[in-house]
Amino acid sequence: LKKLKEEHGARALAVYSGSLGTENIELAGFAQRFRGVYGTPNLLSVEGNCFRSRIMARQMTFGGYPIEEPWKSKCILVWGQNMDNSRQTIGQKVYEAIDAGTLETVVVIDPRRIPMADKGIHIKIRPGTDTALMLAMMNVIIGEGLYDKEFVEKNTIGFDMLAQHVKQYTPEEVEKITWVPADDIRKIARLFATNKPAANVPGTCSIDQHINGFQGNRAMALLQIITGNVDIPGSWVSLPFIRLGDLRVPEVDEPVGAEEHPLFRRFWGRTSPYGQQMLFADAVLTGKPYPLKALIVNGGNPAVTLPDSKRVQEAMKKLDFMVVMDLFMTDTAKLADMVLPACSFMEKAGVGYVYGVNTGIPYVLLRKKIVDPIGESWADWKIWTELGRRMGYGEYFPWNTDEEVIDFFLKPSGLTRELLEKDHPEGVFYIDDDKKYLSGEYRTPSGKIEIYSETLKENGYDPLPLYIEPTQSPVSSPELAKKYPLILTTGTRIPQYTHSQLRNVPSLRKEAPEPIAEVNPKTAAKYGVADGDMMVVENHMDQITLKVHTTEDLHEGIVSIPHGWSEANANLLTSLDVRDPVTGYTEMKALLCKIRKA
Fold first, then answer.
1. Cβ–Cβ contacts within 10 Å for residue 388, how many?
2. Cα→Cα distances 285→8, 292, 308, 319, Å
3. Which residues are registered as beta bridge partners of 534?
4. Would the N or C end of the chain have less CB density within 10 A of its end CB?
């Protein structure tokens, strides 16, 4: 690493931090610390294609990040999320509210019929067209005078321009785009506008990973706004982050992707700590905007989880030096020059807190060490700390024990390790419930909720959400659709696994031993495939083989495949090249493919 910096400069090193959530304060925090002291701006993470798109969209609209609170709602719209398989904590609370009768209207918008759809209305939508549906709903709500006039007049700017803008998105026109009947569009629009409090509940990446995922997240926010479902219980509510120790060091350079996607990097004085990882492979393979020569991967498996796995792996093989910190010999670790064994969460103590922007539950507790680290494994923070010290950065890495790290993170919060160890070993809520509702405080340039965004306009982007057709579709690429006539969506989750993790756990592998693709029986029969067959899924990128399960629950003409499987890697079929212009997020949920019996 010292030689690399001398010969190529600090920015030739990239650091990839995966596995956010309860561990992100250690993984991302110490990764940020090391890369900052070393001097490289290139911290890459899962947020380069997951979740930050919606954070940005809400920040640029509200000036902060309000989070949905569906278990207190009267009406919810669930967009591409199966809470039975993911986000079960929230799902349990939603089901309890349904059973109690307080949550009266549930609308599931998904090409697949999920269990929660049995509790309400199921809208089978064509993948990639959610933004069009939202704009059509706003057409109905505004056109029929169902919007919250008082809230809009008091708290927003740009409503008149939105009202004019959505006139083009009539239910009849949008029916042709989305496959959702015009009458159903009107029905769910009226239900959402007239049953307050109401909340849109998006899946983790169902809106994000499209060519216009950022604008889809903006459109979803505008649905909340025009109906006045902001900062009241059961709507989208302001949830302050817990204040934790900050390990960041000021940066002196721009990361890869900053030129192509400047707002992903910074806006209104906010600076994202991350570069755009979708430019990583290009930087390695082409040397533009500058060469990347080395990579440290901490708690992630980007060789499988990033789009266009072949290209990403080619780039990793070209690197001069690659280090992986992990518990397991992942596909990424197999490509590394050196693997540093990290210990598991049961071998270290730490701060465990609910990632508030994902759950809306402001909870924190201590993660307890059960056994000492086994073999030569260390806690992630210790690996980073010892590396920093041996590089000569000891003053930036003063921690010697798990307890010292915990004390550092907790100090700004007002909580103490002693409090959580002795008085509240079960954990505590770090804010009271009533402090979530902060209506009227919007940290935008105008001081209002910005329906029309001057910031987007000034940077050359659409100030109001537009619907953009997926780049692979019968509409946008008819010649490609002749060869690949089916719509492919990737990333289906099952409860046994998280992304590419846990497939080496025997009890889980017994329950879910292999990757399964889902296809409607009529679609399968048309292409000579039967339930239980091994099936080839192919597109212009590559092909994979996996077992097929036929189900009436999935819309005809769609193939749904899971992600995270080395033996049938969905990301052999995805691309790095088509990106949302604002965020750099790639298309992964609305592609084209064909199928055949293997």
1. 19
2. 16, 9, 14, 9
3. 547
4. C
Per-residue pLDDT of the chain (598 residues; tens, 9 = 90+): 999 999 999 999 999 998 654 456 788 889 999 999 999 999 998 888 888 899 999 999 999 989 999 999 999 999 999 999 888 888 999 999 999 999 999 999 999 999 999 999 999 999 999 999 999 999 999 999 999 999 999 999 999 999 999 999 999 999 999 999 999 999 999 999 999 999 999 987 889 999 999 999 999 999 999 999 999 999 999 877 788 999 998 877 899 999 999 999 888 877 888 899 999 999 999 999 999 999 999 989 999 999 999 999 999 999 999 999 999 999 999 999 999 999 998 999 999 876 555 666 788 899 999 999 999 999 999 999 999 999 999 999 999 999 999 999 999 999 999 999 999 999 998 887 666 665 668 999 999 999 999 999 999 999 999 999 999 999 999 999 999 999 999 998 898 998 888 898 999 999 999 999 999 999 999 999 999 999 999 999 999 999 999 999 999 999 999 999 999 999 999 999 999 999 999 999 999 999 999 9
Tokens 């889980």 appear where?
A: 508
d(CA 275, CA 284): 14
Q: Which helix (H) or strand (E) holds 262?
A: helix 262-265
SS (H, E, C) 266-330: EECCEECCCCCHHHHHHHHHHCCCCCCCEEEEECCCHHHHCCCHHHHHHHHHHCCEEEEEECCCC
Cβ–Cβ contacts within 10 Å for residue 536, how many? 18
- Gap between the Cα atoms of 53 and 51, Å rounded: 5
In what helix (H) or strand (E) does residue 116 lie, and over which residues does it extend?
none
Reference 474, options 574, 580, 578, 590; nearest CA is: 590
- Residue 317 CB contacts under 8 Å (≥ 6 apart), including other chains: 335
**Quick one: 116 exposed, middle or buried, by C-beta within 10 A (0-12, 13-18, 19+)?**
buried
CB 500 within 8 A of CB 534: no
H or E, element range at 559? strand 558-562
Closest-CA residue to 131 (of 238, 28, 214, 23): 214
The CB density around residue 567, as the number of other CB atoms within 10 Å, is 10
At residue 402, the 3 state secondary structure works out as: helix
| CA end-to-end distance (rounded Å), the chain | 47
Distance of CA 187 to the CA centre of its chain: 29
Which residue type does 172 have? E
| 368 CB-contact burial (10 Å; exposed 0-12 / middle 13-18 / buried 19+) | middle
Phi, psi of 538 (to 5 degrees): -130, 140
Q: What is the distance between the alpha carbons of residues 106 and 97, in angstroms, rounded to a whole number? A: 11
Are residues 595 and 527 in contact, defined by beta-carbon separation less than 8 angstroms? yes
Distance CA 400, CA 386 (A): 10
Predicted structure pTM score: 0.95
DSSP conformation class of 529: -
Tokens of 195: 């049953």
